Amino acid sequence: MYIVYLAFAISAILVSCSFSDRIASSYVFKFFCGLIAIAIVSVIAGVRNLDVSGGTDVLVYGNPIFDFAANSSTYGEFVNQVQGYNLDIESGYLLINYLVSRFTDNPHVYYGLLSFSISSLIFSAGYLIRKNLSPFIFWSTYLLTIYFETFNLLRQSISMAMILLAVSVLLANPKRKIVSLLIVISAIFFHATAVIGLLIWLIALLLIKSKRKHRVALVVVIGSIILSVSFGTIFQNFSSFFEESKYQVYTSSSYGVGRSLGLGALYRIPFVVLLYLSMRSKRPIQPFANLQFSDSLGEFQNVKSSSSNVGTRIMALIFLVISLIEAILLPIRLISYPLYRIPLYFGFFRPFSYSFIAKRFKDKLNIFPLLILVFDFLYLNLLVFGQTDLQYHSDILSSIISVSI
């Protein structure tokens, strides 16, 4: 793992160079820094062992589907083989498999390119609102809290990354809501659960457009609490509707309760508090200081600005609401383990939230970004590696290192 952590550090430094206007103003230099940063982590993903430690989805459908694609002469033949294997896979994911299989039959190359696609989407999402983020924390949080999850969630990771990009487009310029919505709709072609992303998009849009933002936030949070508390009853009454469909897996409770609920909630509480404090802070981050906050009324008011971006306090409110919803929905995975995929859509915003916090509080506490890195590292080892079958093993990487030495 030491070589992996070193690769992560180099990748995060390169992303920092790509995001920063002070380090370099050349777009060509920025592009190549970003490209190399993404390529590094994509290679790490591609050379992993393709067994249970590299993600259960790899064994369940990842390897079989790519093998079908590599051995099919036409796309129609490929789809027929997948259906004959009794797999209900979204067309977007099938298309990626088929296109890659046209020039290679090596699954390691395929998983490397898949990781490249996911990382590129997340990189692009961060780049659009880079002025409000700490780039090193943004990329490090992605690598330490989400990256390894993508090994196990092949289709859903693409969808979640697209949802992240869609919201980022909305935050960067609310006038591009149609483009943002189209990205959300496209995400559904990679995983059916991406309809949750539409809900996230609507929440973000309402918080941006509404004049009573705090009331909208309150209604959304209360609604999430009601949903979480009553989800068991709703799930039991309507589970029969999902039988014989692609959602059937979510009605099974045979997977156990999954990760430690208490530890997961405890990890999220400090960041929820910090996002709230960030929202209340009167110190703006230029150039997005286009909002004022009335402490007595708790309302947001727009101030004329040359920037098309939403203000930092609206951004803080959006990240706060998303983080709260994730924490509130954690208990539903006790009903059926596969249901953990629902709050995971909200958890995919961690790179945004944590790097936003790091940017806001860095001047008050210089070691604050370091503290977030420590939290990220603990999350990786306690909640990702500690509570799942995921581990990183690479015979290919080990053999390369052995030959080099």
Automatic annotation (TrEMBL):
Q: Do you know which Pfam families this protein is assigned to?
A: EpsG (PF14897)
Q: Report the InterPro entries cross-referenced here.
A: EpsG-like
Q: Which UniProt keywords apply?
A: Membrane, Transmembrane, Transmembrane helix
Please list every transmembrane segment annotated in the UniProt record, as residue ranges. Answer: 6-24, 31-50, 109-129, 178-204, 216-235, 255-277, 314-336, 342-358, 365-385
Name of the protein described by the UniProt record: EpsG family protein
Origin organism is: Pseudoclavibacter caeni
